[in-house]
C-alpha cells in the first residue's frame, strides 16, 4: 500500500512521519466521536493528545539511531504502563527531549550535539508543515 | 536528513564547521541578516529560541487541529480523505 508511494520518494522519512501522524489523528478522532458533544475540556485534552502524536510521529520517522528520538520513544513506552496523570508531566515538559540529550552533553561531544540538533530541527519543521497542511485541508 | 558520520565516533573539525554553517542557514534570523560567521554562543542561543518557537507552533497547531476535528462529522468528506490516505 505505501510501498509504491515510498519507492520514488526522495524524502521517505517525511512520508512516514505524515502517515504515522495521520494514523494517530484518525485514532484520536475515533475516540472523540464516541463522546459527544465535545466539551471545552475535551478539546484541550484532544490538543494535548495531538501534540503527543506529533512527537511520536517525529520520533518514529527519525528512527532509534538518534538520541532525541530514543528519548521520546522510551518515554512513550514508559507511559503506556505509567499512570495517566504522569503522561502530562513527562511528554509535555518543554525541551524535555533535548534536555535528555543535553544531560548527556558531557559525554556527547559538540559535533554530535550539533548533528542531533540539526536532525531534531529537520523533523520539527517537517511536523509543522504536515500539521499546517492538514489544518488547511480541514478548513476547506 | 542523514549526515555521514566518521567511523570511530569523533567528528572532525571540518565536519563541525559544516554542521555549524548548516545550522546557521536554518536559523531564520541568521538567514535574514545574512551574517558572516556568527559566534558559537550566539548561534546556540538562537538555536534554542528557534526550537522553542517551533515547539510552540506544534502546540498551537495541535489546538487548532483539535478544534477543527471536533467540528468534523464522522462521515464528512474530510474524514473520507484521511481514510483513503490510510488505506
From TrEMBL, chain A:
GO biological process, one term: regulation of DNA-templated transcription
Keywords: Transcription, Transcription regulation
Protein name, UniProt field: IBH1-like N-terminal domain-containing protein
Domain of life, per lineage: Eukaryota
Source organism (scientific name): Spirodela intermedia
InterPro entries tied to this protein: IBH1-like, IBH1_N
Every IBH1-like N-terminal domain range: 20-79
Organismal lineage: Eukaryota, Viridiplantae, Streptophyta, Embryophyta, Tracheophyta
Keyword Signal included in the entry's annotation: no
Pfam families xrefs: IBH1_N
From TrEMBL, chain B:
Keyword Transcription regulation assigned: yes
BHLH domain: residues covered: 1-54
Record PROSITE patterns: BHLH (PS50888)
Alphabetical keyword list: Coiled coil, Growth regulation, Transcription, Transcription regulation
GO terms of molecular function: protein dimerization activity
GO terms under biological process: regulation of DNA-templated transcription; regulation of growth
Coiled-coil ranges from the UniProt annotation: 44-71
Pfam families recorded: bHLH_ILI
Family stated for the protein in its record: Belongs to the bHLH protein family.
Name of the molecule in the record: BHLH domain-containing protein
Organism (species): Spirodela intermedia
Amino acid at each position: 500500500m505505501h510501498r509504491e508511494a515510498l519507492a520514488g520518494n526522495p524524502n521517505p522519512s517525511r512520508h512516514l512521519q505524515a502517515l504515522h501522524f495521520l494514523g494517530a489523528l484518525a485514532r484520536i478522532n475515533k475516540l472523540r466521536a464516541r463522546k459527544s458533544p465535545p466539551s471545552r475540556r475535551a478539546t484541550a485534552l484532544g490538543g494535548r493528545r495531538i501534540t503527543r502524536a506529533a512527537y511520536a510521529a517525529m520520533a518514529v520517522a527519525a528512527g532509534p539511531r538518534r538520541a532525541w528520538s530514543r528519548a521520546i520513544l522510551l518515554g512513550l513506552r514508559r507511559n503506556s504502563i505509567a499512570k495517566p496523570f504522569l503522561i502530562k508531566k513527562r511528554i509535555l515538559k518543554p525541551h524535555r527531549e533535548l534536555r535528555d540529550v543535553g544531560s548527556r552533553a558531557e559525554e556527547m561531544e559538540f559535533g554530535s550535539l550539533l548533528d542531533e540538533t540539526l536532525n531534531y530541527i529537520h523533523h520539527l519543521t517537517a511536523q509543522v508543515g504536515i500539521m499546517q497542511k492538514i489544518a488547511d485541508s480541514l478548513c476547506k | 536528513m542523514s549526515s555521514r558520520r566518521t567511523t570511530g565516533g569523533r567528528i572532525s573539525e571540518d565536519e563541525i564547521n559544516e554542521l555549524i554553517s548548516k545550522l546557521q542557514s536554518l536559523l531564520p534570523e541568521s538567514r535574514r541578516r545574512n551574517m558572516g560567521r556568527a559566534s558559537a554562543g550566539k548561534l546556540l542561543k538562537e538555536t534554542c529560541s528557534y526550537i522553542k518557537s517551533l515547539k510552540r507552533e506544534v502546540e498551537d497547531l495541535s489546538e487548532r487541529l483539535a478544534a477543527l476535528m471536533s467540528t468534523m462529522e464522522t462521515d464528512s468528506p474530510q474524514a473520507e480523505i484521511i481514510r483513503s490516505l490510510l488505506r
